[in-house]
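hey so i finaly got around to running the thing on isopentenyl-diphosphate Delta-isomerase from Thraustotheca clavata. pasting the sequence first so u can double check i didnt mess up the copy paste, my clipboard has been acting weird all day
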Amino acid sequence: MVSFDNVIAAADETQVKLMEEMCIQVDEQDRNLGPISKKDSHYKDGVLHRAFSVFLFDSNNKLMIQKRAAEKITFPNFWANTCCSHPLHFDAEMEEKNHLGVKRAAIRKLEHELGIPLDTFNTNQFKFLTKVLYRAPYDENWSEYEVDHILLVKADVKVNLNPNEVAEIRLVARDELQSVLNDKSLLISPWFRLISETLLPQWWDNLDTILQKDNEDVTIHNYIK
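ok and heres what it spat out for the 3d tokens, dont ask me to read them lol
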């Protein structure tokens, strides 16, 4: 049996270090079950954990999407939404009132991945839309298995990409989305494709209304069934 050490022997050192971060293990109702390492939550079939996906729109209602860096351990060189990551297992990012934990995590990771300064946003600017339960194997060693909290925000921002995280970004208009998804030359992450083909179009069509407040409906969309 191939050991974890052998699996990551050729992986990027910085990305391997990030595998030590403690995520939040959850059940299918998104109830906190305690800490779990990023490694253990993604290794092989994975363990269900909490995640978030940020969809950032500019003042022209264009969506910023990112190409994940080649150094990433899971889904390298795949295109995804603006920022996808995990709240960590400490009090500030576990707070569930008004979705504050995932919003704080989003601000932290937008700075880490895209170089957007921490003081660019406050938590009130992010609007919670829904939760998505999905599973997406990458290869025989890694997979995604997440309750993904979807956050939308609208702002014009300056980026300073962390090349260990993000290879490039694009701004995509509403009427360009399908051509991006259909482009055979692009690798599209499974969670971005899933959300884009089901939920994103209706949000985009009603963006200004949706961005007025958090969605009070916390129904989890289960895409595993």
